[in-house]
Amino acid sequence: MTIIATVSTLIFVIALVLIFSERINRTIVAFAGAFLMMVAGVGFGFYDLEHAIASIDFETLGLLLGMMIIVAMLEPTGFFEYLAVLAARASRGDPVRLFVLLGTVTTVLSMFLDNVTTVVLIAPVTLLISEILGVSAIPYLVAEALLSNTGGVATLVGDPPNILIGSAANLSFNDFLTNSLPIVFVTWFAALYLLRYLFRAELSVPPRNAEAVMRLNPGQSLNQPGTAKKILIVLGLAIVMFFVHHILHVEPAFVALGAAAIALIWVQPEIEETLERVEWNVLIFFGSLFVMVGGLVASGVMDVLISFLEGASAIPLIWFGVILIWVVALLSAIVGNIPITVLLIPVIQGLAQDTGLNITPLWWALVFGAGFGGNGTIFGSAANVVVVSLSDKTRTPITAAFWLRRGLPVMLVTCTIASILYTLFYNWF
Amino acid sequence: MNISDCMKRNVISISETATVREAAAIFSKKHIGLLPVVDMDMKVIGVVGLRDLLDLELPDFLRFVADVDFVHDFGAVESTRPSSDILNGSITVLMKNAINVNEDCGLLRAYAMMLQHGLHDIPVVTDEGILVGVASRVDIGTSILTSWSEVN
Predict the structure, then answer these.
(1) Which residues, at least 6 apart from A58, have a Cβ–Cβ distance to it below 8 Å?
(2) Quick one: how many helices (H) and strands (E) in chain A?
């Protein structure tokens, strides 16, 4: 490796280690890392501001921003509380039924909205429901994060790695529905049953006050029904547009930003309050990762990785894909699935350019590895981090070791099922 | 007029060696909102409010769900009690730093201190920090209003 490749690798690896150690906020680490990469790039002459800006995937940022604005407007209407309260009432206080219903609501929401937002909004009501029932909130909270991670793999907009991969590989919303959704359908049920088994002790404790959930008033939790209706109509339109975006030759980011604009003009919320709820830190984290990885590309690190993979690609592509699922899953569990996806996208692109291989199956391997690998540890996905930091402020915090005992089995089972189905239906991809 | 003219002098306080359970019993028996915690020399080392004890029972969800109007029944939360470990533990765990005023403190200053720190009762101490009384918002407020009768 050349000196510049070594320097840029060092910057990236130190950033990953700091993200893993959780000593410093990951957005701050990434932002400072991007700056260091720029300094090194300008100093050694391999990277400059122009290249850095060009390496930012504005498709991904636009899609995220559009969806975040829509959710930021939906949040104060109480719609998420409303759904959770309906689920609680439908369960009639039965823990297993509540477990399945809350898991399902979270999954369906996370297929169309960002996982983090879904979990951020469902977790507090989950805590409320379990406290008035007199049962532990932990099984519900952990299951919501894991099932929303799993369900999110099904759609283009369901989780951040998919948005990244869809944008880089030009995969449409429908590509995800035909390639990813069927596999997620099977793995999601497996994850649900596995979680039901892993939490069997907690879920067999009868609630101390099952009737209390029947006295939750869903109508009262929906405090702005008119606004909620408007935003849901716009969101519905956006989803319809996602189905046909490739026919109309518009990008998903265009659809999401357009929907956000329509919702804003229709509802006209207090714009400062709405924008405060947009997760700017996530957008900055993404932007910074793009700049860092752009530096790795410019310094020639990717060429080293790609030529290493070219050597390995002597093995049949189908096995290469399965290995990729597992390597990506393990790396995602250690440093989170977003950095790993951003890092591997240029590697896979480079592999295609150099070898002329049909890399489409590899994109799907990356989707499954990043999506299901995110379940393994508390750092694996942003949704996990959200649930754990909420539980840290309660009397019964979820520890990293506890997450490993519940999340790792889910990661292993979902990755195994995904690998088997990937092999069986390989020609489909 | 200053605070020593309107404060209660028969102060109820608690020793730093007491347990949470003992403090709860004093609150109930004496029907008060604030207990100064004192050392052997009656020096104030902190305070415990009724609210600090009640926080032990409040559900976690109140920290995350701002609007609970739709929850018509708190269910199991209503019958949740603190664990015996907490009840038999030292009161100093719940103790907060005391915001005291000196016995020669003016009424408006004392009232302003209470507003600023969100207090309903304030311990009154000597220059040496010895507890001599406790004044409530009502004690201070009514004394201030009494002086209005002197205005023509």
Answers:
(1) A253
(2) 23, 0
B74 to A212: CB separation less than 8 angstroms, yes or no: yes
- Window 75-94 of B: residues touching A by CB (8 A cutoff) are 75-80
Q: What is the pLDDT of residues B37-94, one digit of tens each?
A: 999 999 999 999 999 999 999 999 998 888 888 999 999 999 888 999 999 999 999 9
**CATH pick for B3-150 out of 3.20.20.150, 3.10.580.10, 3.50.50.60, 3.10.310.20:** 3.10.580.10
Which residues in A lie closer than 8 A to residue B59 (C-beta atoms)?
Answer: 128, 131-132
Q: Give residue for tokens 């532990």.
A: A136
Question: Does A42 reside within a domain?
Answer: yes
Q: Look at B75 and A395 and tell me if their CB atoms are within 8 Å.
A: no
**Spatial contact of A61 and A55, defined as CB atoms under 8 Å apart:** no
Give a yes or no: residue A377 inside a domain: no
- Rounded Cα distance between A103 and A121, Å, is 13
Distance CA A211, CA A92 (A): 7
- Categorise residue B59: left if φ over 0, alpha if ψ from -120 to 50, beta otherwise: beta
Q: A277: pLDDT confidence band, cut at 50, 70 and 90?
A: confident
Cα separation, A429 vs A182, whole angstroms: 12
Rounded Cα distance between A146 and A191, Å, is: 8
Number of domains in chain A: 1
Q: Closest residue of A to B62, CA-based?
A: A128
- Burial class of residue A417, CB neighbours in 10 A (0-12, 13-18, 19+): buried
Nearest Cα to A414, choosing from A187, A148, A128, A201? A187
CB contacts of A135 in chain B (<8 Å) are 76
* Residue A292, C-beta contacts closer than 8 angstroms, at least 6 positions apart: A11, A12, A15, A30, A33, A34, A37
| Cα A207 from Cα A204, distance rounded (Å) | 9
**Any domain includes A5:** yes
User: Does the residue A408 lie in any domain?
Assistant: no
Q: For residue B76, which residues of chain A lie inside 8 Å, CB to CB?
A: 131-135, 207-209, 212
Q: Where are the alpha helices (H) located in chain B, listed in sequence order?
A: 20-30, 50-54, 84-87, 107-117, 137-146
Q: Can you tell me which residue has the tokens 């701050």?
A: A28
**Sign for the pseudo-dihedral over CA of A187, A324, A411, A129:** negative
A166 closest CA partner among A421, A341, A379 = A341
B residues 43..62 contacting A (CB < 8 A): 59-61
For residue range A181-194, list pLDDT tens digits in order: 999 999 999 999 99
For residue B120, the number of C-alpha atoms closer than 13 Å in the C-beta half-sphere is 8
